[in-house]
Amino acid sequence: MTTYTSRSPRASRRLALIGLFSVGLLGVTACTAGESAPTASPEASVTPTPEALATGESAPPTSYEDAMTNSTAAAQEYLRVWAEIEVENPADSSAIDDVAIEQAARHVHELSERQASDGLVATGASSYQVLPESTVGEYSLGETSLPFSAATLVGCFDTSGSNFTHADGSVVQMQPIRSGLIRMVLVYLESEQRWMVKDFIDPDVVEPC
């Protein structure tokens, strides 16, 4: 039986893989003045709070295949909601709480707060391809445990489709490595009847993919 416990935030080494979600924390700089953004910036008007997908519920997992299918879908939804927050309204990251718990939720709140504070404007989105190295285990909550209720997804996280600009329109210079292996831990919560992302594991050293 595999029991997963909470991980403390590792703010000192947030996402060595720079990209859609960590640009403000790694000392990137603007390009020369006058350089335009590669894609159009969002309108300056106030945008509504992004809404997480309302239909994310699923029956308790009964097999490895079931767990992989539904945990992968939940991971993709987590990234979709995260990207929507960054593009539409980083000042309000509350929607992530509908798809994530613990470290994975805190991670988004912290980075979104930093993005809003720095005045960075995001466009585009990342992609995540789950690899065969992913595993399924059992999640224990107190004295209760459920088979096939924990998944550690290993995948190629590609941020080449995302970009940032400063408030003045100057482009944020990204690091040359835009893809790498990222692990996400997901758990099935019977109380919510859905999979939730619990940990978004940023590596010490980027392993390209």
Descriptive account of the structure:
The structure is a single chain. The protein has 209 residues and is of the alpha+beta class. The chain has a single domain, classed as Nuclear Transport Factor 2, Chain: A, CATH 3.10.450. It contains two helices and seven strands. Strands 2, 3, 4, 6 and 7 form a five-stranded antiparallel beta sheet that branches. Strands 1-5 form a two-stranded antiparallel sheet. The radius of gyration is 17 Å and the shape is globular. This is DUF3828 domain-containing protein. Keywords: Signal.
Nutshell version of this structure?
The protein is of the alpha+beta class and 209 residues long. Helices cover 20% and strands 25% of the residues.
Order of helices and strands: HHEEEEEEE
Distance between the termini: 30 Å
CATH class: Alpha Beta
Number of strands: 7
Identify low-pLDDT runs. 1-54
Give the amount of beta strand, in percent. Answer: 25-35%
Structural class: alpha+beta
The geometry reads as globular
Q: How would you state the average pLDDT, rounded?
A: 78
Sheet with most strands: 5 strands, antiparallel
Helix coverage percent of residues?
10-25%
Number of helices: 2
CATH topology: Nuclear Transport Factor 2, Chain: A
Q: Tell me the number of structural domains.
A: 1
User: What is the annotated CATH architecture?
Assistant: Roll
Q: What is the rounded Rg? A: 17 Å
